[in-house]
Amino acid sequence: xxxxxxxxxxxxxxxxxxxxxxxxxxxxxxxxxxxxxxxxxxxxxxxxxxxxxxxxxxxxxxxxxxxxxxxxxxxxxxxxxxxxxxxxxxxxxxxxxxxxxxxxxxxxxxxxxxxxxxxxxxxxxxxxxxxxxxxx
Length: 136
Fold this sequence. Notes:
This protein has 136 residues and is an all-alpha fold. It is built from five helices and no strands.
């Protein structure tokens, strides 16, 4: 299902909003959490799995999207966030509260999160396919 121009703008705005919240989390919690040798680091990545599922269920509805367009809306949100993240990492890494090699862990965490979000949104989209070609 295609998104209207208004829906694309809305999803893009929400992508910006959620990316900014993730950056704030990294900025304030990152120096304590996203450090090499932190024994809780794997748990931070695993925690993204249920958080991503909840995000895919709730965030599109907060933005006003209903089931047929949830997958494309989440894709636009993630694309917006990924592009902002790439730009910020290149030109303003100080936004994250850490710079240099210390920035690799939170950057990897964000990329992992985008991947998990897209996987859940894709699965949700496939399950809603009514053409009969998709797996249950």
